[in-house]
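We read letters as residues; the integers encode the fold. Take this protein.
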Amino acid sequence: MAKQMNRKIVLADGSEYYGYGFGANLDRVCELVFDTSMCGYQEIISDPAYTGQMVLMTYPLIGNYGITDEDYESKNPTCGGLIVREYNDNPSNFRYTKTLAETMEEYDIPGIAGFDTRELTRKIRDNGSCKVLITSADTPKEEAMKILAETELASDLVAKVSCKKTWYARTANHKYNVVALDCGVRLSTVHALNSLGCNVTVVPYNTTAEAILRMKPDGVLVAGGPGNPEDVAFIAEELKKLAGKVPMFGTALGHELIGMAYGAKTYKLKFGHHGGNHPVKNLETGNIETVSQNHNYAIDAESVKATRLTVTHVDILDGVVAGLACKEDKVFSVQYHPALSIGPNGRLGAYEQFIALMKKEEI
């Protein structure tokens, strides 16, 4: 691949960074965020939570192992764009079927590489996330700034990523029936529940509480996704109607919506939490867990005090609420993306806790 300095990004403050393009050759305005993961770029570009965002990878070399057919987090990746220090278009991996650039071109995801991404990361860290335009290196700065000023970031992101009709993920010899409210559900989440003996019915984000209860689920998953939870506050109103009637588990955006359903408030973080190495503390056990997070909004800790919720986890880097629970209603949520995990001394991970709730056990 010819590495010509043919593309640039322009930030809302007027700063410009020149590099070489890969992936889709198109112009786009997005919200700029950074992700600290060393690997997992396929999961990142296909994570529905990154819809409408341009992701800066802090790890300097991306593309080494290509793209596989099995590791997508969604069937139609909607990440806004990708920024890397160095892009490798010659992957080495016996499982890979396409390069990262080929996949990004297929799904209309533009990319740029070839400049100091550390400097840009510091800018986001110090000043917060902002709008960014990826465009041709020849685009005049005045024109780029006009495009940035006139382009509003989308606010209907959950509607964009949610399924349009109900679909099913069944497993042999299932023990539980779970309804997943699709606010941007990851495929790995569905697969995790399947592996624990759950048949999963994935329903659109605007499905009513009454319709969910008619399905007679053993539990309800409120799956994570993109954007501001206030944009879909009506979902929280439906979750209110489910509380206490069926075990409920929320992740990421679903965590925020469950908090809102009980009366907690949300706010936007300066630059969000994006990466696979965030330490959170379990306040019930005192244990530290390293988890994957991808969110720009969080629950206001002070507002939780006036609700029936208990804070169960906090991010030890900045104190952000990372877990909530209402035990009498059999409801809990985590701000992060959980993994299948039964830790030392038989300690259950979040998915296993959800299974325990459906078994009528205490969490």
About this structure: The mean pLDDT is 95. The two ends are 53 Å apart (CA to CA). Residues 7-153 form a domain with the Glucose Oxidase; domain 1 fold (CATH 3.50.30.20). The first helix runs from residue 41 to 45.
